[in-house]
Every structure is written in structure tokens, then in C-alpha cells.
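The record is passed on directly below:
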Amino acid sequence: MDRENKPGYKSSGSDSDHWGYVVCFGTIITFIAGIGHVNSFGLIYNDFIIDTQSTAKSLTTAYGVFAIMLAIGGLILNVISKKHSLRMGGFIGATMLSIGSLLTVTISNTNQLPFTFGALQGIGFGMMVPVCYSTLNHYFVRKRTLVMSLCKAIQGIVLMWYPQFIKLIMFSYGFRGTLLILTGISLHAFPGMASMTPRVKHRSRKRTAKDLRDKNEESNLLRDVENNAIVSKTEVPKTRGLFDKISSHILEFLSIKVWKDVVYCNICIGQSFVNFSDLTFFMLHPMLLFQYGYDVANVAMCISIGAGADVAGRCGLPLISYFTHMNTRHLFYAATFFTIIFRIVLLQVRQFLWVAVVTAVLGVLRAWLHVASPLVIADHVPHNDFPGAYAMFMLAAGVINVVCAPLIGLVKDVYQDYVPAFYALTFCCLPCLVFWPIEYLLRRK
């Protein structure tokens, strides 16, 4: 039994609760260290792809591998957390992230990115994400949406300037120097994980007659359980014991029980497609702008505008949630619906002003998607099941990424045009828009 769940324990008070804001800071720097540069992939690798004659498929494949390794990292953490602390798993993830980031400096073409970026950094970051979300959920319950929105807002403020930062260091230090600096930034995941400590609990010193009576009853109950366990051990064949152990570990690793929840499955599938579509869309967004004929300065400006709008969306959401109760699943669905509409608009315009405006709207909608995504799962499953449930969501998202990402890159390579690939990405949001209302209607009946 966890220490905080034992009878007789109570919170230490405000000093313990205040550490939750340190956890918020640790979450922010962890996400910046892990995926802060992903939206600037086009700026970093565009010239490298041209020089090495690589294809768009290799880049999208690397991101597909990254997505599924996120899930594997979450599953690994789920197993580690059964015997060790979440923070220990987070430190292992930070180590893998840093190693993968360092090895990326040595690549000779984008075909090596699926290992350095996809596998190593994917597993590392995948182990850290549930640590951050689980620790935040542990400290904040009533203010969960507000705190998550603030974390994402501050993270977005930093990332708003990331494309400009990438542009400057690319100009000053070149491709390899930029990757080396990003390796140094990835090391900030270690202090981020160091902040992930659970809330401190203290035993109450007051002992009453009721406590003593409860203790005696608990001792009798434990003695009965131990006696039953001894009897059951003698009755179970040894040959079945090994099989049961293996089966138990497999079921524990895969968190099979969450898949028995049909509503969770529908949430997971819908969010997985939207997650894949969103991340791949913004990763290839700079490539589309280069195809429109924009120079590096305009592309960096457009990315910054999107990031700034992302910040505005994350800052505005806490204000909205403060004054009104907001259903996070409804928020996610509405943001997905309007995302499809404005993506189609983006593919119809070419003038920089209109592209910038639409990019800003998409940035706000993206902020709402990212804030609502983990909260939809957290609101549906019990707190203790969240790490496993979120790991299975990342697994589903990873499978969809690894299957669909190469197809998106292939569409671009076949047509020699990014526009058809972006239409395909946009329609990947349809499972959420179609299946969620069907579930709602069936539950109403």
C-alpha cells in the first residue's frame, strides 16, 4: 500500500502543496528540453535534406518512429513504477533523451534519424511525459485545468521565440553546431525530473481507542489473508505458477484492463488520429511555406506567429476555465472541428498576411487541443490508472503515427507537392469528429 493511502496519514499542509508549483516549472523545462525544437524541424533540416538528397518520407518516418517509441517509453515507465519511483524512471528517460540528442549530431543523412531521434529520444521523452502529468495530477485536482493551461502557456511563450533562436544559431554555428546546442538544451531534462517528488505525508501522532481497535482488526485480517495465501500456495501447481507470472507481467505491461472500457477506446482512437495529424502538420508546415516561395525570415516569422497564438490560446483558456466550468472533451472536439476548417483555408491562400492570420488561428486551436488532450483521459480514468491509460494512449498514437506518417511522406514524394499531403493530414481528424458523436448518441439511448 502506498504511504499516502495508509490510515492515519494526513497532508503536511501548505509547504508540501507549494512544491506543486516547482513541479509545474519542472514540467515546463522538461517539455522544452524534449520537443522544443520539433516545430522548427523544417528550418533545421531543410538544407540538409536538399544537400543529402533525402526524401520527405524519411523525415516523416523518423517522426512516426518517435511517436510509437513515446508509447513504448510510457509502457516501460508503467512497469518500472511498480517497483521504483516515477522519478527514477524519469531520470532513465532523461538519460536516453540526452544520448539520442548527442548521436543526432553525427548523422550523415535523414535515414539515421529514426534511430537517434525516433527511437532513443522517443523512448526517453515517452518515459518523462507520464511522470510530469502524474505528478501534476497528484498535486492539483480542482485547479487541474487552470494549472495545466498555465504550464502550457509559459512553455508556449518560450517556444514562440524558438524559431528565431534556431535561425540565429543556424546562421552563426551551422547545422552541426545547432544540433550540439540542442543537445545541451536536452540536458535540462535532468533538473526537470529532479523536481518530480510526490507530496509529503506525515503520520498523525494522536492515537484514539478507535485507532487501536482498527489496528487489531487489521492485524486479524492480515493474519487470515496470510493463512489463506499459505493454503493457496500448496494447492496451486508449480507448473502453472510460472505461466501465471508471465501472463501477469504481460497484462501489467500492456495495461490491458483499460481496453475493456469502450468509451476509453473511443477517446483513445479519436485523440490518436488528431494527435498524429496535429504534430505532423506543424512539423511539415515550414516545408509548405518554403514551397509557397517564402524565404527563411518569412518562414521563421510565420512559425513564431503560430507559437505566439499558441501562447495566447493557453493564456486565455485558464481565464475561461476560471469563470465557467468547461468540459474538456467538448473543448477537444470543438477545437478539432475548427482545426479542419482553417487548415483547408490555409491551403487556399498564398499571400503572407492571410497565411499568417490563418496560422495564428490554428495556433490558438492547437493550444486548446494540447491542453485538453491529457485532461480528457485524466477526467475519465481513476488517478491510479492514469499512467497506464496514458501510456496506452501513446501506444495507440504511436501505432497510428508509424503506419500513417510514411504514407503522408509518400503522398508528397509521389505528387512532388506538399498540398495533397496536407489534405490527407487534415482528413485524419475525421475519426474523432465521426465516432465521438456516435458514442454520445448510443450512450443517450
Observations:
- The chain has a mean pLDDT of 80.
- The CA atoms of residues 320 and 326 lie 8 Å apart.
- The first helix runs from residue 14 to 35.
